[in-house]
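Ticket #4471: structure output looks truncated?

Reporter: J.K.
Steps to reproduce: submitted the chain below (201 residues) through the standard prediction queue, then opened the result file.
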Amino acid sequence: MSVDMTDYRDEWFYKSILQERGYYKYVKQYPRIACYLKRFMELLEPVSDMHTRLWGYPSNGGYFVALQPLETSLNLFDDIYATLLEMNDYSDKKLNAPFMVLVPPRHWQYTDKEAPDSWENGTFDVMGPYALENFRYFDSKKSSAPFPIITMLEDFQKTDRFPLNFQVDSHWNKNGANFFAGKVAEKIAGQIEKNSSFEKN
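Returned output as attached by the reporter:
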């Protein structure tokens, strides 16, 4: 499982709807009203924190966990980690297959050279003071997690391949996707070498 920078928002949002947490219990009953209300609160976010209080996260794009201290985003990090624990349990007990989590970076977490004309410019702080908070969180979980957690920041920092992203989009181009796929194969092979649960499956 690869954990992307927007997954923290998406996981919280959709899990909250499924579990009907707090105000979210009304979203399924009145989806159109909820959509308009959410949009209205997004517009008010510069002068009010009602969006954060009601929806559980800021409205300033999908990369907000890289714009604030880890402690502020801890509920979201813990929420997605809880889901990963459930996925690991299901994979182990139902599928009899090992589970592994990879955490790749977005380009703005390690360089200021990629995607210069990205349509997402302004929604992230290039190599900002909180850009690596998700890596801090997952590094802290490595020793206790019942599955391998592979943070891939260093792999992207060290590569001389360029560019890995489209010029106008923060997603990987063909070169970036090939680089990531190759690293995934490399990480899986490494786990097979040192972990018998990977080898037997």
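Triage note (M.O.): checked the attachment and the full token line is present. The chain has one domain: 7-199.
Status: closed, working as intended.
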